[in-house]
């Protein structure tokens, strides 16, 4: 199987970051120079786009109840530049609003606070919404 085919297969089911596609090509034994050529070709054609990947991934994580810290971590692990990560976070519903929605579903209290912390919400947001005193943050 050639390098282009490996890359296209990795993109068939979902968007991936440049780093993820490069890792798949490396795992398939594709030489570095050929990996770079394939990645550049995919970028030029629009099939590989880190910003689009980051927007989709961040939106998906936020919809599943992730806080900003978890989203930052996941995008950084996928090799997304910090500038893109911060731009994408600005497009999401504010972290405070996402946390409020979770508290409405789960109710305020210590269990919800632990849940929110585990989902990557900031300590300020967790402290405010889990105790029901989030007016000063919003």
- The CATH class designation of the largest domain is Mainly Alpha
- Mean pLDDT, nearest integer? 92
CATH topology of the largest domain: Arc Repressor Mutant, subunit A
The number of distinct β-strands equals 0
Straight-line N-to-C gap: 54 Å
Q: Oligomeric status of the shown chains?
A: single chain
Task: Note the total helix count.
Answer: 9
Residue share in helix: over 70%
Give an account of the 3D structure:
The chain is mainly α. It has 3 domains: 1-48, Arc Repressor Mutant, subunit A, CATH 1.10.10; 49-92, Arc Repressor Mutant, subunit A, CATH 1.10.10; 95-131, no CATH class. It has 9 helices and no strands. The protein has helices at 3-12, 18-27, 32-45, 50-63, 68-77, 82-91, 95-106, 110-118, 123-131. The longest helix has 14 residues, at 32-45. The radius of gyration is 19 Å and the shape is elongated. The termini are far apart. The relative contact order is 0.11.
């Amino acid at each position: 199987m050639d390098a282009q085919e490996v890359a296209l297969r990795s993109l068939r089911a979902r968007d991936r970051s440049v780093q993820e596609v490069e890792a798949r090509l490396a795992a398939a034994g594709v030489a570095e120079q050929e990996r770079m050529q394939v990645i550049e070709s995919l970028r030029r054609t629009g099939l590989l786009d880190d910003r689009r990947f980051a927007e989709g991934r961040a939106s998906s994580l936020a919809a599943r109840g992730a806080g900003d810290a978890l989203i930052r971590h996941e995008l950084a692990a996928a090799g997304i530049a910090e500038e893109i990560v911060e731009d994408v976070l600005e497009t999401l519903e504010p972290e405070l609003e996402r946390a409020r929605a979770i508290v409405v579903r789960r109710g305020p209290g210590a269990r919800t606070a632990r849940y929110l912390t585990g989902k990557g919400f900031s300590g300020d947001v967790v402290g405010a919404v889990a105790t029901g005193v989030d007016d000063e943050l919003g």
